[in-house]
Structure formats: C-alpha cells, structure tokens
User: Fold this.
Amino acid sequence: MKKKIMCLLIVAAMVLSLAACGGGNGSGASEDSTGAAGSATSDGKTLKVAMECGYAPYNWTQPDDSNGAVPINDSSDYAYGYDVMMAKKIAEELGYELQIVKLDWDSLIPAVQSGTIDCVIAGQSITSERLEMVDFTEPYYYASIVTLVKNDGKYADAKGMSELAGATCTSQLGTIWYDKCLPQIKDANVLPAQESAPAMLVALNSGKCDLVVTDMPTAQAAQVAYPDFKLLDFTDTEDNFEVSDEDINIGVSVQKGNTELVEQINSVLSKMTVDDYNEMMNEAISVQPLSE
Assistant:
C-alpha cells in the first residue's frame, strides 16, 4: 500500500510540473478542481456545452459514435443531433476541444449562470425572461409552432387554432409551447406540463390528451416514432398561435457579460444561412435513433 501511495504522489508531482511548464494541450488546465467552466476564452482550449441529450432532433443520447456523435462527459454514452452538429462546427472553427455535458432542462440556465459550463446549445428560445438571466447569441435556428394530434382523433381535421377549442392538451415544462400557446386555445383543458419532450409525446400517444403544441423539428421527428401522429401547421393562416420572434428564435445562451464568447459564436453563425440550418436539421432528423 505504501508503494502504491508513493507512486501516486510521484505521478501527481509530474502532472503539476508539466502544467507549470505549459507542456499540455491546455484542455485539462482550463478547469479547476470542481470541474467548473471558464475555459472558453482566448487562452482556453475546451468548450463545455450543456444540453438535455434527450430532445430529438435537437439532441439525443446514443450508445456509440455513429454519424459523428460526441462522448457525453462522465458517461459511456454519446450525444448527437442538431445541437451537437452545431456545437461541433462552432468548436472546430474557434479552435476549441468540445465537451458535451448532459443536464436536465431546468438545470441548463443555472449551470450557465454559475459558470459550471460555458454555454447551452439546447433548442432554447431567446425570450425576454431568459435574457434577464443569461446572454444569447444570434439565432442558430428559427422554429415555427405547430400542433400534433392523432390521425383518428377529434381534432385531426382542424384548419386553425380556433378549431382546437375545448381540447385536452399539454406540452413540455418551461417552454413557450406550454406557457404561451396552450392558454390561447379557447376552453382548453390544460394538463400539467410534462418534464420532457419525450414525456409530452407519450402523453399524446397514450390518449391522455387530444393534442400537444411543439415546434416543427420536434413534431417532424415525433412522426418518425409515432406514424399515427398528424402534424397541424397553421403558420400561413390568420388562425394561428400568436407568438413573437423571440418565441421562435433559437439561440446559444452564455453567462451574463461573457461578450467574448458571444462574439466568437456569432462570428461562426454569421457565415451560415437559413438554408444551412434547415439542411443540418433535416440531416439530424434523418439519422435520429427513432428513424432506424
């Protein structure tokens, strides 16, 4: 045992010596003993990005690195999806090593605020409420609001939001779908919010509700797993959900005051177009686990 302890002490001394000489690649030296972030600066090499890893097609968990998936920190699993694709592009162009951190939806903003991670790329709308807590980059996706129903359901032939009156409905907790869209349905029976997008879809599939409100990519991905779901898109009608640009503009959130990282990420996004975003999203939908 004494020999083992002595060996460990020698190894630790060697690591400290290398760090003092700047001999490493910088990725390990960018974190403190608690694993906190702060690494995504001009002299850092690691970009710690948080997401749910359970919100297809934006992000999901899979068992291997197929299609270019990235290892999830402190896990044997991998993450992929539109958000991971975007995170890889940003990290590559800025010269950072990418680290994906898996967190629950409600833990994402607190993690940014505390500096545990550098940023969140997780399908977050750029709302005024969130802007009070974190800063956002320019949008990296624009997600229109749609409704999912059953093909044989009571509301399958609805041509506008007014025709959803009286429906039993739900959506995901902490989203504009639940907080802003569902209250617009006249006489709706709004069930408690679901903890995740998958839980929301299960509620519809099991018959607990008549419909759910979500965004276009989530709905398109859901139809792969649930072929009997029907997507209702009222976007080009006057009888649609009333939402603002901030509700459908999806951005990367960073800690308040971290203008350096915001500017760096914006420098990457400025080179991309809406067509680029849609092409990436279509690719994510095509390779999501549910499509196999």
